[in-house]
Design brief:
single chain, alpha/beta, D-Maltodextrin-Binding Protein, domain 2, six-stranded mixed beta sheet, five-stranded mixed beta sheet, 15% strand
């Protein structure tokens, strides 16, 4: 009887403590804690830069003012980080993440390495869209997207699941481009150095990555920008066609639009499933406040980087549009999308 009583009391105490922890206000919960922001990319690129800027300012706006610390976890086109956050990180709002904007589509296509449910991740907010572009060095014979349909050119590539690889290979599959990827570079900074060294002819990465790391390339004609991977042209690249514009049939345009919609997901941050609703609201509103913070805006302006915020609720709906893609369209996209990112 005494043993049963002890077990009962221990269980009751555990339940009580769990209830107290859940009843804590977000301010009480976060006070004195560290919030970890896991970046699914190497150091130095635009994703890393944006994440570190968010981490620098976000803590001031979360109730309880926790410290926000960053950790890079590159691998498998950011899927190493996303899988870790989804499957093993604490489900309490103390871990945030940034991964590939194509992750919802990769999940929908059952691509290798995906061990997460994108719609079950809780989306906190978007700092801005992320429009990639494909470009070659000034000495390359491939100077336009039309040239790329006729002449093979080598591009430096990173992870198989990264948009760095996915977008140009999609152009091969849909439009008949002749890009050949040389894989294995550790992030776009290293891949761009390879371009300068003459190891490859070109690269594909975010416009913001080039503007942050190699701004002179955009001013002095060092590179030929062939196409941009977004739903519409960036104001900074008014004469460069989108890949969708290059497509010559409605079906090809539909396929490319579905894939390039990842540009709208862009630099979006998320937390684990299972976070209590009041903490989700605290994180989302803190993120919104961060995007309006004059200190963050000043830092972005100083680095020549832009922002186009979206609330967590809006990102969650955007993710749902990919997850709910019709079977007919999904099958067309499946045939065009690089198989398992290769």
């Amino acid at each position: 009887m005494n043993m049963l009583k002890s077990v009962f009391l221990a269980g009751a105490a555990t339940a009580f403590l769990a209830g107290v922890a859940h009843a804590q206000s977000p301010s009480d919960f976060y006070k004195g804690k560290n919030v970890e922001l896991i970046i699914g990319y190497p150091t130095g690129g635009s994703n890393d830069t944006y994440s570190r800027l968010v981490a620098q300012h976000l803590g001031r706006h979360i109730p309880g003012n926790p410290n926000v610390i960053t950790r890079n976890m590159p691998g498998a086109g950011s899927f190493l980080a996303v899988n870790t956050i989804y499957n093993t990180s604490p489900k309490d709002g103390t871990v945030l993440g940034l991964g590939s904007p194509t992750m919802a589509l990769d999940e929908k296509l059952d691509n290798k390495g995906v061990r997460f449910k994108t719609s079950e991740l809780i989306w906190i907010g978007r700092l801005g869209p992320l429009v990639n572009m494909v470009f070659t060095w000034k000495t390359s014979p491939v100077k336009t997207i039309e040239d790329a349909m006729k002449i093979e050119s080598t591009l430096s590539g990173t992870g198989a699941g990264s948009t760095v690889s996915i977008y140009p290979l999609t152009l091969n599959n849909v439009l008949g481009a002749k890009f050949k990827l040389v894989m294995g570079y550790k992030g776009s900074n290293e891949a761009m150095l390879a371009l300068e060294r003459g190891e490859v002819e070109g690269h594909s990465t975010a416009f913001e990555a080039v503007r942050a790391a190699k701004p002179s390339w955009l001013k002095d004609g060092s590179i030929n920008i062939l196409a941009q991977f977004g739903l519409q042209r960036l104001p900074e690249l008014p004469t460069v066609p989108t890949a969708i514009e290059v497509a010559d049939t409605p079906e090809k345009k539909q396929i490319l639009t579905s894939i390039m919609s990842a540009s709208e997901i862009g630099t979006s941050f998320f937390t684990t499933p299972g976070v209590p609703a009041d903490r989700v609201q605290a994180l989302r509103r803190a993120f919104d406040a961060t995007t309006k913070d004059p200190a963050l805006i000043a830092d972005l302006n100083k680095m020549g980087m832009s922002m186009g915020p979206m609330t967590g609720e809006e990102v969650q709906k955007l993710i749902a549009t990919v997850v709910d893609m019709s079977p007919e369209l999904l099958e067309k996209v499946r045939k065009a999308y690089p198989a398992e990112g290769n």
